[in-house]
Amino acid sequence: MESDNGAFMEKFTLPPSSSSGDLPLSGLTFAVKDIFDMEGLVTGFGNPDWARTHTKANSTAPAVLALLRAGATCVGKTIMDEMAYSINGENIHYGTPKNPCAADRIPGGSSSGSAVAVGANIVDLSLGTDTGGSVRVPAAFCKIYGIRPSHGVVSVDGVVPMAQSFDTVGWFARDPSILKRVGNVLLPPLDPHLVSPSPVIIAEDCFKLLNIPIDRVKQILVKSVEKIFGGQVLKYMDLGDYVEENVSSLKHFMGQGGDTKEYSIPSLVALSSAMRILQRHEFKINHGKWVSSIKPNLGPGLKERIWEAVFSNDDKIDICHSIKTELRMALTSLLGDAGILAIPTVPGPPPKLQTQPSTLETFRARAFSLLSIAGVSGFCQVSIPLGLYDGLPVSVSLLAKHGSDMFLLNLVETLCETLKEHMLNIDATVNSNL
């Protein structure tokens, strides 16, 4: 397993459904997060007690079948965070997959093994799930591309639910063209009327959440957009102010959970609070009875979050649903049919392995402020690697309105070569100073 960066729960070869060489994913290999059902195998959900108390799956998840029918070969199931309830990627039972960019740093979770398998060049692509950030975070930490599709557009049948209001099936690739090829298999077709983005909104306040030089990260994207689409499409704004003004139900969560000592965006802190409350509520409905009866062995930090969910009350759930509706309407109005929103994927490079949860708290709070934008609105989001800062991976994310997934993937592919020009410059500049 060491040669595979510890990414896999089990390895096997499951050939494509057809031997035809002209299928869209012919010749590509993929791995599957251990949250997807695969016929004849137990879906482990990241925890040995779960695996012990569940039987083999009778059928294979539609998303996995779609890739096999498209010509790809499955080579195994990958390690994940227990019960999909973390964005770190550390698993005390099965081991923590080794981040291929930085061995002393966390790989990000909960789709940690799937991201590492791609980042370490073991497979061409992999399937994960994203509820609170479980594709976007490991994609950012492992310097690869990752997509959280629009909520509800890719089937989650045959996937162990975490929280249905947010659960999505996402995927990883090292190359945006492969990311798009998978999209052509799993997503609805592209709207032919969507050709180029307008506007491209740079969320200035969100970039201030970064713990690395803001302008250096922002300018990579800005220069690439200017070169291809012209500077006239760019627009700059503070997203938090817009959200506060247009999502009235957020007032019930304002002033909760913010650290006045650190820079934060109050409306996005409130948004992430609402997301976590609804997530806990749905997790409790899905798995509370199992957790209470089995009392599974759970890792530190994660154990506390899972039991907090089991004992959570049902206050403000209706308000949380109202916030989801209001945010989607507000962002749809902001972006129109072809608008794009640019934000950092995460607040900075991956933290070190086994960092104390209390030390990570500011990072987590900032991360969820960013992750909750697509999570609560249901919009699609692609995390794009931008290179290295201090030898550690840096990324940015583009979001588009619900249902514009293929438009977004086309845009990412179009920007790729220009972004690479600036990425190489960044890497060269940073590495020369090491």
Automatic annotation (TrEMBL):
<comment type="similarity">
    <text>Belongs to the amidase family.</text>
</comment>
<dbReference type="InterPro" id="IPR023631">
    <property type="entry name" value="Amidase_dom"/>
</dbReference>
<dbReference type="InterPro" id="IPR020556">
    <property type="entry name" value="Amidase_CS"/>
</dbReference>
<dbReference type="GO" id="GO:0005654">
    <property type="term" value="C:nucleoplasm"/>
</dbReference>
<dbReference type="GO" id="GO:0043864">
    <property type="term" value="F:indoleacetamide hydrolase activity"/>
</dbReference>
<dbReference type="Pfam" id="PF01425">
    <property type="entry name" value="Amidase"/>
</dbReference>
<dbReference type="GO" id="GO:0005737">
    <property type="term" value="C:cytoplasm"/>
</dbReference>
<protein>
    <recommendedName>
        <fullName>Amidase domain-containing protein</fullName>
    </recommendedName>
</protein>
<dbReference type="InterPro" id="IPR036928">
    <property type="entry name" value="AS_sf"/>
</dbReference>
<feature type="domain" description="Amidase">
    <location>
        <begin position="22"/>
        <end position="175"/>
    </location>
</feature>
<dbReference type="GO" id="GO:0009684">
    <property type="term" value="P:indoleacetic acid biosynthetic process"/>
</dbReference>
